[in-house]
Design goal:
The structure holds 2 protein chains of 2 kinds. Chain A is mainly β. Chain A contains no helices and 12 strands. Chain A is globular. The chains are: A mainly beta, B mainly beta. At the A-B interface, β10 of A face β4, β5 and β9 of B.
């Protein structure tokens, strides 16, 4: 069974600084997708970034980038120039290609200090 | 981006009553819809997966007769919590996926409080 592990229950970052959230996963599949979702206090799930496992290039979306290490099964999220609005719960998630089940990690609460 | 509408956003009900939550895909056909439950400061727990026109597939430990799921059309899925009890109080979120698309779009969630 696939599992997703987020080992950091909480993280803090100073405004304008950079923070990295960790995520590891376990799978025997070769084709899959990885996601980072943000859940602010409104509890709306917001897709931050996604990565196709077959792509070696790390995905980037503005201030958000990932470090995807397929062999190590690691998928960390880097947030640059952190803003107060980045404060939220962040979930790492895995989806096998052609599969239906999105597997979530336990989440990391990110606090941004002004 | 695609929009998924979930209603109601908040519901308070008496113990023993049934509550229906709707999840609609507004601008795409959702071949698959998912229902999650989330406790405070915890992750999303998948309850069931439903495909249009067929019976839902429930995760282990989720009572089928307690949480009735109907996916009658490509744009609507409903979750009915039957004979609700205080322990059913939780945040319920739906998500939808189109055909041949790995992206999942989430509803805004429903906070259920059973008195």
């Amino acid at each position: 069974a696939q599992t997703v592990t987020q080992s950091q229950p909480e993280m803090s970052v100073q405004e304008a600084e950079t923070v990295t959230l960790s995520c590891t996963y376990d799978t025997s599949e070769s084709d899959y997708y990885l996601f980072w979702y943000k859940q602010p206090p409104s509890r709306q799930m917001i897709l931050v970034i996604r990565q196709e496992a077959y792509k070696q290039q790390n995905a980037t979306e503005n201030r958000f980038s990932v470090n995807f290490q397929k062999a190590a099964k690691s998928f960390s999220l880097k947030i640059s120039d952190s803003q107060l609005g980045d404060a939220a719960m962040y979930f790492c998630a895995y989806l096998v290609e052609y599969g239906n089940k999105l597997v979530f990690g336990a989440g990391t609460i990110l606090r941004v200090k002004s | 981006g695609a929009v998924v509408s979930q209603h109601p956003s908040r519901v308070i009900c008496k113990s023993g009553t049934s509550v229906k939550i709707e999840c609609r895909s507004l601008d795409f056909q959702a071949t698959t819809m998912f229902w999650y439950r989330q406790f405070p400061k915890q992750s999303l727990m998948l309850m069931a997966t439903s495909n249009e026109g067929s019976k839902a597939t429930y995760e282990q430990g989720v009572e089928k007769d307690k949480f009735l799921i109907n996916h009658a059309s490509l744009t609507l899925s409903t979750l009915t919590v039957t004979s609700a009890h205080p322990e059913d109080s939780s945040f319920y979120i739906c998500s939808a996926r189109g055909a041949a698309d790995e992206k999942l779009f989430f509803g805004s969630g429903t906070q259920l409080s059973v008195l």
